[in-house]
Amino acid sequence: MANAILKRRTLLKQLGASAFLAAPVFRSVLSEAQTNAPLRLILLNIPGGVPHVGGPGSDAGPDFFFANELSAGRTGQLAMPFAALQSDMIVIEGSKQPASEMVSGFFELEGHGGGCRTMFGGKGEGQGCNGPNACGADEASSYGYGTATTIDQIVAAQIGAATQFSSLHMGSLWDKGQGGDHAESFFLNGQPVRPMSDPTAAFMRLFGNGVPAGTAPASGPPAVDPAVLNDYYRGKSRLDKLRAEIEAIQKVAGSGEQTKLDAHLAALRDLEKSLPNITGGQQGMAGASCQVPPAPMVMQGVANPDDPTHASFTMELPQTSAAFNQIAFQAINCDLTRVMGLQWLSSGDHLPRFEWMGLKLDHHGMEHGSSPPEYYAAQTWILQQCADFVTMLKNTPEGSGSILDNSVIYLTSEMTEGNHIHQPVFQLVMGKAGGQFKTGRRISAADKNNNDVLVSLVNAMGVKVATVGDEKFNTTPLSLA
Amino acid sequence: MRLPSFRLISAALPALTLLLVACSAEVNSQHTPSGPTATGSSGGNAAASGGAGMGGNGATTGGTVSQALSIGPTTVRRLTNTEYRNSVQKLLALGAAPTETLESAAILKGFDNFSATLTVNGALAGEYAAIAKTRAKDFAVPPCAAPATEESCARSFIESFGKQAFRRPLTSADVDGYLALFSDEKTRTGYTGGITQIVETMLQSGLFLYRSELGVEAQGPTRHLTSYEVATLLAYMFTAKPPDDALFIAADADALKTPIQVEEQVRRLMKTPDARPAIRQFMRVFSGTARFGDVRKNADTFPQFTASVQASMGLETDAFVDSVVWDGDGTLNSLYTSPDSFINSDLAPLYGLPDPGQGPKLMPTHLNAKERAGLVTQLSILSTHSKAYDSFPILRGKFVRVTLLCEVLPPMPADAKITPPPQDPSFTTRERFAAHSQNPTCATCHRLIDPVGFGLENYDGIGRYRTTENNKPVDASGNITDSPDMNGAYSGGVELASKLTQSQEAKQCLALQALKWSLGREEVAGERELVNGIAANLAAGGLDIREVLVNIAKSDNFVARSYQ
């Protein structure tokens, strides 16, 4: 991966291009024989806990997950989705989420929101003010945002320029209804990175113009249609102007507005990468099977999409999740991004989401254990969605292995089970990080915090950090090698 | 002094109060403008004493309590999606507002318009760009005829279109910048292409997307908004649209500087048709139903809750709000007590009334005054504040205390294990939850919440009136404790509504929510006292909601900002 970035940057330098040059019309196609495959970081956000049963020892063999579930007299149903992925994963058991506990003490966030705010970032400054106005006039802190930065954004800041989208986040029904806004889990300097929740909009954004076609010329700028040239220069001028205006606003706006406007600038930079490519420079390395995913079924619109008196969403969970899985897979396969966050529902969702499975309760009700069988069934279904997505990566050859082999996939939840408890928290790492991780085992990490795992994941992506989140919650990185 | 409006119902009250003191004391009082001009001496005195009241004895500052921060920070507020759609429509004179998908905004603490949560991410920037591209392509570029030059035509267009887009006259630097953009594009695609480029760019400009509330830098750290900024603030607050011609005229004359000038515009705007949908949105926020469209019910338990019925419920509450705020006496008391509402073929069965026979059209009706009284007993409100499969009195109790009374409940203990009572057809909902409330760990908080919700047990999960549940009589006796002015037993929603009309805390809460909604942010220290003053002055008349809005708009806090 490092080589790939270097090549890209070297090429840009040779071309005298800006750091945010146009995205590819042409994209190199990574052959199966190539070994310089990029690494990807993918975070999977499971709402309301992953109940699991730990067992003795640190490595219980190939059926570790099942063995413990079954020996504890449970059905093992939560492990079932991962039956075919055991050799590709590391189960991390016993570690704590101390930051989640602290921030969950904050008014109104409770266990759900506090866990979500910190599960991928380990608590930034200003998170967890213990009182309704103890955070002062700092609204970001009063919402539990503080200065949170999650590992997807730490990594995207370093490798995001290499792809059309520095990072992508998608969430099935995550922001609909009560509970959603407490489930914001991805942050850059206190700004929530809210997942896309509309599969159709995501499809149009990522694949509205098709997929990269063909391979870039061996050298030199391609012959470009004058109309495309015009489109490029027109778009470039416009984006330069838009960026300059935001920067001008930053100069006169107060300190509290800077990160918000920074986020806007970052959005414009990503937008600029979608301009036509006129240089022939390569960006991204699409897999040979890169293709446009199936278009999501069209959601029924309403006269005024913002009018809350109208039902705002007609796609239900299975359709939404299936659509996002396909879009997310091809976004990785086509190398549109190398940093991704996927989410299903939201922790504390008060709405019924599983009626199509015959489950009556709302997800929040399930989380709180009023009906364990329903809770297990719902969580198993969500975990199956994760497994389906990971399996697509596993089944896609890349280099001498698969995309999964070159990925760092981290699955966790904001709490142990639904009852506002944050230890032990279930953590599952999938993929070999290009050979850096030894998979097919279970690690007992009762003396570790999730921060220690987050550090290891970031480092595996080639981004060297000593700590993630609040330093006091970092011990030493958990070795996954 | 204990301020009832800022109560923490918590054993941790002393500790938390100290934290508040520390917070307030950090602010330099020299930035504080004079007391609220709109609320008279009552509000001003309240603000002056507010620091001491909220800060206890000011122990953390060595006995000197600073006059807490009493104006909000300078800000740039991104347009809400509704404001954006309306703005594009007006700017381009479209027949209808754009309906393309836009990323939904966060709703935190019930509000969908807080500036801190209105950001622009990659997806939204892409959606803005797509809309701008489409609409610019369709834009009819005005012709440029001799003797005017293309540059002079472009300059004229930039100045006029830009003023509407940015809601203020463009500076010479603004004009020069857009002229350069025009000239650059003109070399490729000619005059029309250059103008189209201006339109496409302005439609996604930060100067269009963000409402400036920065004031004038030369005024230093404490600033008064410019007349154009005030015009914009008033326009979006009262119409969810950009300033109209009259506001532009007033701003051009710099005639939005005094409370009288602002009041004149507010009263004018409130007479326009656009005020109705704008204030409806505030009432949705106030009643915790900003996402009523997302509510779902279990189809087995509540098969009646179809999409059509749900939409009718929302429209009923909108019509009810209009009938009180605009067509009635406009008071919070009427909002809480009026048994008059609107039904159609969807809703009549839920109220147990005959179908008015007009299909989906909502018809005015008198609901049973023994069963229904105002906002809290509306179907949409009761459906929102319940669960998919039952009435869930915890949510309803929390709704009353947090949403309608602006109380702050203590946090749940970190080690609390929460397991709502399971469904059991042999008990009523109340019976199931009563046991839960008696658990000592839970009772600390739930004794404050659950008895309030129990008082609404006459309404099921979609708001239908009931006297029995699971073949048992419903016990709808409620009780409020630890309240400044609502303590005591009651039975049913009608009596709860009556108690709300007697409560000053309820009036203060409405005023507080209106202030937060109008300014798009949490209140800063001292503003509770400001709104308490407004509520006190208007209480005798039942709290005219329109006058609350007028008084907020006339206050210093509405137009002053602190640059930090």
Give structural notes.
The complex is a heterodimer of chains A (481) and B (564). Chain A contains 13 helices and 13 strands. Chain A has helices at 2-15, 64-71, 98-104, 110-118, 139-142, 151-159, 199-207, 226-252, 258-272, 317-333, 363-367, 372-394, 450-460, and strands spanning 28-30, 40-46, 89-93, 168-172, 187-188, 191-192, 285-287, 339-344, 397-398, 401-402, 407-413, 427-430, 441-444. In chain A, helix 7 runs parallel beside helix 10 (317-333) and helix 10 runs parallel beside helix 12 (372-394). Chain A is globular. The model of chain A is unreliable at 1-28, 30-34, 55-62, 214-218 and 299-313 (pLDDT under 50). Chain B is mainly alpha-helical and 564 residues long. Chain B is built from 23 helices and ten strands. In chain B, a hairpin with a 7-residue loop joins strand 8 (477-480) and strand 9 (488-491). In chain B, helix 5 packs across helix 6 (172-202) and helix 8 crosses helix 11 (275-286). The longest helix of chain B is centred in the N-terminal third of the chain and has 31 residues, at 172-202. The two termini of chain B are 31 Å apart. The chains are: A alpha/beta (481), B mainly alpha (564). Chains A and B meet through helix 5, strand 6, helix 7, helix 8 and helix 9 of A and helix 1, helix 3, helix 4, helix 6 and helix 12 of B.
Oligomer: heterodimer
Query: Which percent range describes the beta-strand content of chain A?
Result: 5-15%
Radius of gyration of chain A in whole Å, from Cα? 22 Å
Structural class of chain A: alpha/beta
Overall pLDDT metric of chain B: 86
Percent helix among the residues of chain A? 25-40%
Given helix and strand content, the structural type of chain B is mainly alpha
